[in-house]
Amino acid sequence: MPPPAEVIDDDPVVGEYDVYLTPEVEEQVYLLQYPHRARDQALSYQNHAEPMELRIKPASGFMELDLPIHVHHNFDKTKGIKWGEAMRKSKDDGITAFGMAGGFGGSRGTMVSGQNVKSRTATADHNAGDESDEDPIDALLVRFDDANDKGHVLNKQTLGGQVLKDEKGKPMYMLGAFRGGELHLTKVTGVVQMRPQFHHLDAVTHTENVSRRKDREQQGDGLRVNEPKSVNMTMKVADGGDMEGVLLRQSLQSHYAEPWTRLRYHADTSAEAYGTYYEKLFVQDPPSAPILKSSVNNEEYLEAISAPRNDPSGRVKKKPLTEKQMRVLEENEGPEA
Q: Could you say which residues form the signal peptide (predicted)?
């Protein structure tokens, strides 16, 4: 009789690791994903993409990151000045956030007082007084480097997103760090997908609205007869049917009102980053770490992840016997004669 053929495992085990769960840390751990950046485009000084500022709204979960733009390489200086001026003027008007983090601008028009707008406009007119009738953009183009240093040029790109925190019944993300034959897992507080934000376009819209409002005030009420007017249609639903809309407006207002918390960014190659990595992402004393024990056995786990057994007839099917129940049944029946 020929010997049995050798069974070749097409997926052999190549390594085994002891798994450790790190204790909860006081700091929050966020996983930032960059869907629009290639893996080799790291946020580093070497790639001319070292982050300028990182900020977060902890309650609403919005996060933004500013990256520098090379204004002397593949850069439209005219648009850079146009958008930079819009951002600067919006900031002077008290606008601190755009998009969803700023409540979509729904109430910003009433939050910006006429006094602030007039003050900003008067200051701009005073600064441009020595430029005669020359277009301010053309004047800034002539002294572009000076304008860039003084904040008149959009020289940064903003990436942003909202934190997705773990929910009951949904996957939980962990950070894994290897050390020899050990795998250390740290729970992730939330995941953020950082995508390009177009705040400069919102700023242009804001400055255009302010300019139109100023023109109407100068022309007087008598010249506004034929101007188009925006009408906001609202419909109240009885029995609290409009509660969804009320809650949405309150949520957007809270997003706008919450201030930004500025964070200090450390590159992944810095000494601070390495120190935090070794201190927070590893169990410091593995021999004294408690042994993890599962609260369910194999059969209970299989039952928990299996699809429910539904019978269209409505009859309840009996669950299959577990391995333990099968052994007990065989012992009670005894050996066959």
A: none
Low-confidence ranges of the chain (pLDDT < 70): 1-5, 102-135, 221-241, 309-321, 329, 332-337
Residue 45's Cβ-side half-sphere holds a number of Cα atoms within 13 Å equal to 6
The answer to whether residue 303 sits within a structural domain is yes
Same domain, 34 and 178: yes
Amino acid 90: pLDDT: 86
Whether the model clears a pTM of 0.70, i.e. scores above it, the answer is: no
Please give the tally of structural domains in the chain.
Answer: 2
The verdict on 153 and 65 lying in the same domain is yes
Quick check: is 235 in a domain? no
What range does the domain containing 188 cover? 18-221+245-286
Rounded CA gap, 215 and 227, in Å? 12
Cβ contacts of residue 173 below 8 Å, gap of 6+? 31, 166, 187, 188, 191
